[in-house]
Design brief:
Radius of gyration: 39 Å
Number of helices: 12
Strand content: 15-25%
Shape: elongated
Order of helices and strands: HEHEEEEHHHEEHHEHHEEHHHE
Strand order of the largest sheet: 1-3-5-4-2
Length: 525
Amino acid sequence: MQQVRAKQLAEWLADESRPSPVLLDVREPWEIELCQIAGSLNIPMHLVPMRCAEIDPGQDIVVICHHGGRSMQSIPTCVVIEVGMKKLAWLIVSPLLASPLFAADLMQVYRDAQDNDPTFAAARATLDAGREKTPQARAGLLPSLSLSGNTVWNKNEISTHNGPTLSKPQFNSNGYQLTLSQPLFRWQNWVSYDQSKMQVAQAEANFVQARQDLILRVAQAYFDVIYAVENLKAVRANKAAIAQQLESAKKNFEVGTATITDSHEAQARFDLASAQEIAAESDFEVRQHALQAIIGKTPGTLATTRKDAELTMPQPSDMNQWVAAAEKDSITVQVQQAAADIAAREVDKQRAGHYPTLDLVANQGHSKSYAATYGLADTDYTNVGLQLNIPLFQGGLTVSRQREAAANRAAALSGLDAARRGAALAARQHYLGVTNGLAQVRALKAALVSSQSALESNKLGYEVGVRINIDVLNAENQVYVTRRDLAKATLDTLLAQLRLKASTGSLGEDDVVQINALLDPSSAL
């Protein structure tokens, strides 16, 4: 392996007598310097994207491996740099200059979102916090051990009448105590332990909901970017076609085969297309930033849907089965069911406020103090006993808490009913969204073929004088509008499929994989 600096490389590449081919291993940031030096040496340079497999080993080339800091997910590609009459095949793994063979797909973007989305990170932390409910509640059933100590300075002033006088008016007393307490009967603690399991189940369901929401948010943002690019491409293509028609109208007016009206109509359409292009560019920027907010980095090129992608009907094809599944298994329903169960157990917990409690209590300690009768005394003690507490009256607090818990249970049951109805409605909406979307895609595909045929007919009619310029402009606009609408209908249908699965609580990574299979990784937007 021969290693050279950028200036030496540029001069050496310009040397006709150099051997060929030669393999170099360059590990330094030389690329910008090479371009600058090549320019100073008046060596023409031209970058041509090229796959490594397309390079002929017999060509007069130099292969340079540049080791950059790109992640293992990157796919290296080659760029052929023509330096004079010489070619340099450059294997790129540079984070700034890499031009990957494959665009990022939905699955890769979803992985990035899992790692970088702050909302999902918050949901993960909330799940970790929710899982601590059971250890906390279990602690109410287990023994507790505590150590306490004290030291007290005493000052006594005693007046006696014909009696002995205290010989030590100032002294310190101190001691410590080790206390063990084991609940034997505290019914509210057992209820709290049962509740904690329900709270953990609720936290798990909330996290599943957050994961489904992440999939939907990523898919929505991803498809929004794709549609924004498709819309921008359609607007620019329409503008280019109008510009061509405008130029043709001007030439025809100059030779007297068209009126000035054709030029004015084309100019008006061109100005409108320019305004639409500005709006489309702005929308594209906004959509990109929306995706960036989820994945934590600027999105690169994205894979779009394959032209031969086949969208299929939901399985099962019966809407009522989807509705039934949503009413039973929707994550929202699961969360509300857990809330209702927790509220029901809360009623039992507050009712336990009337029950007695029984604890086993053991103490062991030492004290040191001064007594008038026998002076300084050290005492070691140990005691074990049962502590019974029977609540008799607390000012109506326990009864009020029972009424509160009963009201909260009724509210939770109403929330559960609302969740089931909402899940059923969502399942119907998204099922119809898929089926209607499939029909719309089929209709727009046929409309695109028809509009393209109409455009060709209008162009031919304009050339022979049976159509006017505005007819061609309208036909061109119809083609691009139909192509844009087809892209949107396709993306909306894919998103409706994901939302339908989410309405039944079954949306997962496998569904992302299925949608991802409909994307073309070799197509970059």
